Amino acid sequence: MAIENWIDSDDRPWGRWEEFLNEPGYRVKRIFVHPGQRLSLQRHALRSEHWAIAKGTGMFTLDSDVFEVSVGDRVFIPVGGVHRIENTGDENLIIIETQLGVCDENDIERLEDDYGRS
User: Fold this and answer.
1) Which of 14, 23, 60, 98 could form a disulfide with 50 if both were Cys (CB 3.0 to 4.6 A apart)?
2) Phi, psi (5° rounding) for residue 89?
3) Could you report the per-residue pLDDT of 57-103, keeping only the tens digit for each?
4) Could you report how far apart the first and last alpha carbons of the chain are, in Å?
5) Domain 8-107 is of which CATH architecture?
6) Residue 100 contacts by C-beta under 8 Å, 6 or more apart in sequence?
7) DSSP labels, 64-86
8) Are the C-beta atoms of residues 88 and 34 closer than 8 Å to each other?
9) What per-residue confidence (pLDDT) applies to 68?
10) Where along the chain do its domains lie?
11) What pLDDT is attached to residue 2?
């Protein structure tokens, strides 16, 4: 059963995100990463993030560490942490993301991007 109570969403070249809460100081999203796709290598100056892997498998990068993640794993991305995730499975990788701090889509500094975005 699909949850469709989101208040905002956006399709991206790697998949899609849906926003469920956006309050001063915190935000909650569900992120879908398509098989074989990955997010940009990025960092945030104004927020930290907690990710919970809800479905699928992937390779997660945080600064110089790279490790496999799967259902039930949780990761913390501190303010300024350089991060990315890649879907290494054959189904959508689904992440529940909680942002803490100033939660603005403009707070993305892309360091590398497979889709030519800056």
Assistant:
1) 98
2) -100, -170
3) 999 999 999 999 999 999 999 999 999 999 999 999 999 999 999 99
4) 35
5) Sandwich (2.60)
6) 25, 26, 47, 48, 49, 50
7) TEEEEEETT-EEEE-TT--EEEE
8) no
9) 98
10) 8-107
11) 56
Closest C-alpha among 52, 47, 51, 50 to residue 25 = 47
Question: How many helices (H) and strands (E) in the chain?
Answer: 0, 11
The pTM for the full model equals 0.92
Query: pLDDT (tens digit, 9 = 90+) per residue, 10-56?
Result: 999 999 999 999 999 999 999 999 999 999 999 999 999 999 999 99
- Read off the amino acid at residue 50: H
Residue type, 82: V
Q: For residue 93, give every residue at least 6 positions away whose Cβ sits within 8 Å of its Cβ, in sequence order, or none.
A: 32, 33, 35, 53, 55, 56, 57, 58, 85, 87
